[in-house]
Specification:
By secondary structure, the protein is mainly alpha-helical. The chain has one domain: hpI Integrase, Chain A (Orthogonal Bundle), CATH 1.10.443. Helices cover 48% and strands 4% of the residues. The protein contains ten helices and three strands. A three-stranded antiparallel beta sheet has the order 1-2-3. Helix 2 runs antiparallel to helix 4.
């Protein structure tokens, strides 16, 4: 037949490189502003604050956060087990909790004990939480708190890994916590931590040391994530 191409021309073309999404993590000051934006006098406000702290500690995905179970919280070991059916990789893993976050989580679990449900985070009327609903609420609280950056669960996940790396954490343990199947994705996260972000982060910490932190009923200056505490103590 005439006019037919004998060789596969698609092999001549190189794939177009797409620029990696630039994820801008929150500074320490922005984390503080966000946490102070939740109304702790309400169940929903306190629940959401605990969720943010757990997310920063564990660096889990939003789907993994909402699938956490009370029965998988091990306060003695300081971990939460993520069941294989609820992880992106379909592999179970354990993620760490700081001592201070565990204290708040215990308080939250005591308040929600009457729900009689194993799911860790529920709505005030005992229903399963929807990820889009919480994303919207997180954005609204951040906006009211004066945080100019876009705040999404994934941003908090990356903020947690930034705190971990700047506090001396290594890539191999970070890979295990994040649930990455290979090191390439973890390296991508680490590479996002540019020198400019590090300088801004350290500057924010130093500025916090010069200001009086406002205490609240549940969250005090010492009741932040373990990494944040260590950063403040060693600057």
């Amino acid at each position: 037949m005439e006019n037919l191409i004998e060789e596969p021309i698609h092999e001549r073309f190189k794939p177009i490189k797409v620029a990696d999404e630039q994820i801008e993590p929150l500074s320490v000051a922005e984390i503080k502003s966000l946490l102070n934006g939740f109304d702790e006098s309400t169940f929903v406000g306190f629940r959401d604050k605990v969720m943010v702290l757990v997310l920063l500690d564990t660096m889990v995905r939003i789907s993994e956060l909402l699938a956490m179970k009370q029965s998988n919280v091990d306060f003695k070991a300081g971990t939460i087990k993520l069941e294989a059916m609820n992880t992106k990789t379909r592999k179970a893993r354990e993620v760490p909790l700081s001592t201070k976050t565990m204290k708040l989580l215990k308080e939250y679990m005591n308040e929600s004990e009457d729900f009689g449900e194993d799911l860790l985070f529920l709505t005030y009327d005992r229903r399963e939480m929807l990820s889009n609903t919480w994303r919207t609420r997180l954005h609204e609280v951040a906006d009211l708190s004066g945080v100019k950056k876009v705040v999404r669960p994934h941003i908090l996940r990356h903020t947690g890994d930034l705190l971990y790396i700047t506090n001396g954490g290594d890539s191999f343990s970070l890979q295990k916590i994040l649930g990455h199947t290979d090191m390439s994705m973890t390296r991508k996260y680490v590479n996002m931590t540019s020198m400019d972000v590090k300088r801004q982060h350290n500057s924010s910490i130093r500025s916090l040391l010069n200001r009086t932190m406002v205490c609240s009923r549940f969250i005090r200056p010492s009741l932040t994530t373990k990494n944040l505490i260590q950063l403040l103590e060693h600057q």
